[in-house]
Amino acid sequence: MYPSRSELEATAIEACLAGGSYLREAYRSEETEAERLAHDVKSSADTGSERRILEVIRLHFPDHRIDAEESGVHDGSGDGASFEWIVDPLDGTNNFESGLASFATAITVLEDGEPILGVVYVPMLDDLYVAADGEGVRYDGRPIGSDDGDGDDGGRDADLEPSTAAVVSVIGHDVKREPDHEAVSEAINRALEDRCKRRLESWSPTVHWGLLARGRLDGIVCYRPDREEQLLGELFAAEAGLETDRGENWFVAAGTDPMFDALRAIVAETVDDSSR
Question: What is the pTM of this model?
Answer without folding.
Answer: 0.91
